[in-house]
Automatic annotation (TrEMBL):
The conversion to 3-oxoalanine (also known as C-formylglycine, FGly), of a serine or cysteine residue in prokaryotes and of a cysteine residue in eukaryotes, is critical for catalytic activity. PANTHER family: IDURONATE 2-SULFATASE. Gene3D superfamilies: Alkaline Phosphatase, subunit A. Residues 1-23 form the signal peptide. Keywords: Hydrolase, Metal-binding, Signal. It comes from Bacteroides reticulotermitis. The modification 3-oxoalanine (Ser) is found at residue 76. This is Arylsulfatase A-like enzyme. GO terms for molecular function: metal ion binding; sulfuric ester hydrolase activity. One of its GO terms (cellular component) is cytoplasm.
């Protein structure tokens, strides 16, 4: 890479590098703990009244956490590719789960870690562009169990997930909690980490849960019984306020799950139980690393790729729109070098910021084409420009015209619905993903605009479920214009700089990828 293209970060690594007491010359280990489809607000630190994430809450309160962290797009592959490249879907070209092979970038996170001498591992779900051969250790799990089914336990559990619990399971799972994916994944992760004695390591611990199939074992099944759950703030009665795509998704869900509205409380309980199981395993992982003396020299990043309706608007999973329950994600930074911060960090951040932040933390250059920003100064108590983190953008849609239910195409023909099989539906389909949306959040306000010029404007403090659309409300005209300008600024900012001019022109970048 041409080092004259941008300012090198190597001069900063001595001041910002993280070392432990026991290994003064080593680089920090890095562990990313990612869940799949976890809402940000179902936790004690945000006021949820049930003990869903007690360990993560404790870790957050003693380190750094964000309550305005967002995915780049509410779908797994676009979000995960963005985390590894630091680029938005409009730049990676990965705007759907079906465009992984189209990815475009110069250098990703794994390449940087390898250049820095790290051992690398994935234990859990992949669903990004990275491949088995890119890692030193690779043990993949999916929503249907472990990919390498070496044992009878692997085979039996995978059979249950594929056949009996394909989308959801309304009874306690007929397996022990110890046989569930999160426990098995942490077992494998700890085993591999203990073997790393001579070099720093990067490990991606990627839980397939709480993504559907919604199923969980005792005692977690009974922890969140339907009669104890707080009511959702919205229901199917609010669907007409959210637009046609939400209504089409509801129609698809009802065709696959005709009793969905009656089953929703139990499915919500399963979803919360799955998160609590993950939280307990996260605690086991961190505690064992603390006991081995590795916590102080390990940076932990805890996040999800996107959220889940979990009953909002009478829906499950994801699909339509960019509601907060789908786009806002949990994000915690802990461990080596992270300076504790009281309360949530007042900054709008993105999953695209993970890669450049880790580059700074380990003293590596941020590769050309990365669009995210380094959070490391913020995380380590150093000065940073507040304006840089005063808003954030989310993208959604693969383009073209919106598909409607007036088309001759049916759910079954498209592949969105497997007839006569409960919960065999794909919420990420032609109807919900066609067209294009952009969302910007700034403080308590959120604006959404689609390619037809249709807008949404919400005050999230007064209207957290986004059902009172203030777009074109005369009283909010100034606010609307302010947010439209902010959205346009973001759109210009994330226009892909690649390829940069080949001669003569000088390409200028801030060392932390700051714009302001």
């Amino acid at each position: 890479m041409n080092k004259n293209i941008y300012l090198s970060l190597s001069a900063l690594s001595g001041a910002l590098g993280v070392v432990s007491v026991s290994a003064q010359t080593s680089k920090p280990n890095v562990i990313i703990i990612m869940t799949d489809q976890q809402r940000a607000d179902l936790c004690g630190r945000e006021g949820f009244p049930m003990a869903v994430t007690p360990f993560a809450d404790s870790l957050a309160l003693h380190n750094v956490w964000f309550d305005k962290a967002y995915t780049v797009a509410p779908a797994s592959t676009p979000a995960r590719c963005s985390m590894f490249t630091g680029r938005y879907p409009s730049a990676t070209h990965v705007r759907t789960n079906h465009n992984m092979k189209d990815i475009y970038y110069t250098k990703d996170m794994l390449e940087v870690f390898k250049e820095q001498g790290y051992k690398t591992a994935l234990v859990g779900k992949n669903h990004a562009h990275v491949k088995e051969n890119d890692f030193d250790y690779y043990d993949e799990y999916s929503h249907w169990g472990r990919n390498r089914r070496d044992t009878k336990q692997d085979k039996d559990f995978a059979s249950f997930l594929n056949d009996e619990a394909r989308g959801q399971y309304l009874e306690a799972a007929p397996f022990t909690a110890e046989e569930q994916n999160p426990v098995q994944i942490v077992n494998k992760a700890l085993s591999w980490a203990k073997q790393q004695k001579d070099s720093a390591f990067f490990m991606w611990i990627s839980m397939p849960e709480p993504h559907n199939p919604y199923q969980v074992s005792e005692p977690y099944f009974s922890m969140f019984s339907p009669d104890k759950l707080p009511a959702t703030l919205t229901s199917r009665k609010d669907l007409h306020k959210k637009g046609k795509k939400y209504e089409i998704l509801a129609e698809l869900e009802d065709q696959s799950c005709p009793n969905l509205q009656e089953e929703l409380p139990r499915l919500r309980g399963n979803y919360l139980g799955m998160i609590r199981l993950i939280d307990d395993q996260m605690k086991r992982l961190v505690r064992e690393l603390q006991a081995s003396g590795r916590y102080e020299n390990t940076i932990f990043v805890i996040l999800s790729d996107h959220g889940d309706y979990c009953g909002e608007y009478g829906l499950i999973r994801k699909g339509a729109g960019v509601a907060e329950c789908l786009t806002r994600i949990p994000m915690i930074w802990a461990g080596g070098g992270v300076q504790p911060h009281t309360g949530a960090m007042d900054a709008h951040v993105s999953i695209a910021d993970i890669f450049p932040t880790l580059c700074t933390a380990i003293g590596a250059d941020i590769p050309l084409g990365v669009q995210g920003r380094s959070l490391w100064p913020m995380l380590t108590g150093k000065p940073y420009p507040r304006k840089e983190f005063s808003s954030i953008m989310v993208q959604q849609g693969f383009g073209g015209e919106d598909f409607t239910r007036d088309e001759t195409l049916t759910f079954s023909e498209e592949g969105a619905l497997t007839p006569n099989k409960i919960a065999h539906f794909d919420e990420l389909n032609t109807w919900t993903q066609s067209g294009m949306l952009r969302m910007v959040r700034q403080g308590d306000w959120k604006l959404v605009l689609d390619s037809y010029g249709r807008g949404e404007l919400y005050n999230l403090k007064a209207d957290p479920s986004e059902i009172n659309n203030l777009y074109n409300n005369k009283k909010q005209a100034a606010r609307q214009m302010e947010l439209l300008a902010e959205l346009m600024t973001w759109e210009l900012r994330v226009q892909d700089p690649l390829p940069v001019p080949r001669s003569r022109y000088h390409f200028k970048r801030n060392p932390y990828n700051y714009h302001f």
